[in-house]
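Support request, please re-run this one:
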Amino acid sequence: MRLDLPYLMADTDRHGNERRFVRRFGRKIRIRALPGTAAFASAYSAALEALESDAPPRQAPRGGAPAGTLGWLASSYFAAVEFTGLPTLSQSTRRGIIEACLREPIKPTSPDKLALCPIPLLSAVHIRMLRDRRADKPGAANNRLKYMGSMLSWAVERNLIGPIRRVT
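Re-run finished. Output below.
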């Protein structure tokens, strides 16, 4: 029997038994009742309610960084057509990596985050620092370079910032 209910997933275990789950917000609850029965409908409803009540709180809109800072630039980039035109999975991946970079401290001992760095003070040293902090994971380091570079290239094309200073 094919069921087309939101958040209902089905898979087969190694013994060939079909299992059904309600999956939402990265969590799942198994439904053991037979499909098409009243018990199944009530178990499905209860699972949805349980997952909804444990839903992560809605995040405040991203942004709010002072104008002229790297955080402000990132929120402008996230609102741009070039970013919103990307597939949803690409958007969430890029956003997650860029926001993780913005939460990094400017210096190892500094409490100031990179999001508050004024754009005129941003240099290639900062970008290399972001890369080097993930040296143990080369793929993550390359993704930081790639996505920060695409955001900064976008900003240079729109004259929001000048070219990044090369400081050795």
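The beta strands are 8-12, 18-24, 27-31. The radius of gyration is 22 Å.
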